[in-house]
Each structure stands twice: as structure tokens, then as C-alpha cells.
Fold:
Amino acid sequence: MATASTADTRPRIDAALVRRLVDTQFPQWAGLPLRVLDPAGSDHVIYRLGEHLSVRLPRHAGAIGQARKEFEWLPRLAPHLPLAIPVPVGVGAPDFGYPWPWAVSRWLDGEVATVGTLAHSSRAAVQLAGFLAALQRFAPEDVPVGTTREELTGRPLSDRDRATRVAIAKVDGVFDATAMTELWDAALSAPGWDRSPVWFHGDFHTGNLLTVDGRLSAVIDFGGLGTGDPARDLVIAFTLLSADSRAVFRDVLGVDDATWMRGRGWALATGLNAHITYADVNPRVAAQTTRQITQALIG
Structure:
């Protein structure tokens, strides 16, 4: 039986819908001007609401838990972190045909970080390592038992094995399939995280970093927030940093060989997934994921 595609089942989101949702559920902000943010991420449609707020509506079912997760956890994390993070101020309910929870947060000024600006910056490497170190020190035992803990438990790298091997085959000829397979095998064979679980951002890449005057200022988009192996956050070393600044980042964070290898595996797997999904329709993503994959191969 034929099934609807993901695109077919995604809700239609436009300014009229967002206006009705905001004005009925948050009347204190009724009438504030709305301006769509373009380009936004692949998971959310984002509107700026007035000068000081933003509205984020999930595009697909895979992102529907983020609003409540951020509302619960970001205020607890923020005092422990050296860079600004989003400040949630409300979670909206489904209405007017829109099916999922949505979020209102304080607007964070800044430009999205770029390789051209920060790739060779030792200062940025130190800042990134300091942010992750602070995040990892936030006590995982603060996570309550029950469903919330299960939702925050990170999945192992091995869960991506089949999809990653399929992706390697698909891009053979674009990238070196033999080198990618060797890296993937090595990442899966590396010893696992054998210490207490720590907090990770879960989607720590260039697009989720903001800068002001060329300096890192904020980290956004905590939909992947969880606890477990911190290796997945090492993806930033391959999306943003050069070989020299990457070495500074690794040294400051104190990453052992096994964790670094798993981090390269996460960079390869996530880069391949984004590349085969978006590269043909989005030149910006094509360039970013090409860099991510090639830098992960370099190490």
C-alpha cells in the first residue's frame, strides 16, 4: 500500500497561523510584529516576534519534543554554562489545525558561526571546549527517574550502522568509500564510554552557534539534549574547526583516543545523513556536509 511522503504529511505553517496561535494563547504578545526567519533549520519554522522573542514551530514529528524539553531543562542548565543559551518563556498547545507543541523564547542576537570566521581561531576552540566541559559537569543525577530519563538517554553510535553503510554506498564516487568504511569500522570498534553518563548537546555543529563581533556568544537548538557518551558533541571539531584549532579544542577538553574516534564516527554518520537528504536541494548544506565528511576522514 502506498504511503504519504514526509513532505505530504507536514503541516502547513504560515504567518496567519502563527498570528492566531500567538494571539489566542499568549495575548500579552498579541499584535507584536511577526517576521519569518529565512533560512531556518530543517526541523522548525522560526518567526521573530517583536524585538525580543522568537516563535519556533516543528516542521515534522521528529522535532515535537523539543519545546517541552527546552522549557524544562534550559533554565536549569543556563547558570552553569559560559555561553548564552535560549531562554524559553512559553510552550504553546496544538490548535487551528497545527498538531504539535510549539515554543516561544527570548530572541538571541548574533550571526550564525561560519568556517570563514572561526575555523582557525584558537580562542573559539577554547570557548567550545569550555562550553562542553561545563555542560558535562552538570550532574546527570539531577535527571528524574521515569519517562524523562528515558527520553534523555543517548542512543549508541552502533544504532546508526545500517543507515551509515547504506549512505556510504550511495555517495561512493563523491567521497572515498573505502576510507569512510575504514573510519566507520574503527569508530564502531573503539572502546565505548565506560564512565558515568554526562550531558551532551546532541546537535553541536556550526549552524547552532551564534557570534557577536566575530566571537562566539550563544549555543542554540537543544532538541538533541541528553545524557550518555559525550563523543557526539565532538562533531563541532569537524564542522567548524581546522586541523590546528581542532588540536587545541581536543587538548583543552582532554579527549582520549577512543572518544575522539567515536566522535569522528558521529561526524561521519551525521554528515552522511544530512548530505544524502539535503545536498541535492540545498547547496549550503552540500558544502557544509562535504566539509564535515572530509574533515572527519582527516581526523
In short: The first helix runs from residue 6 to 9. Residues 1-8 have pLDDT under 50 and may be disordered. The radius of gyration is 19 Å.
